[in-house]
Amino acid sequence: MYDIIIIGAGGFGREVYLWAKDSFPKDQYTIKGLIDDNPTILDDYNMDINVIGNLDNYKIKKQDRFLFAIGDINGKKSLIIKMKKRGAKFLTLIHPTAIMANTTKIGEGVIICPFCLVSDNVLLEDFVMLNIYSSCGHDAKVGSYCILSPYATLNGFVILEDEVFLGTHSTIISYKKVGYKSKVSANSVVMRDVPPNKIVFGVPGKPI
Question: What is the pTM of this model?
Answer without folding.
Answer: 0.95
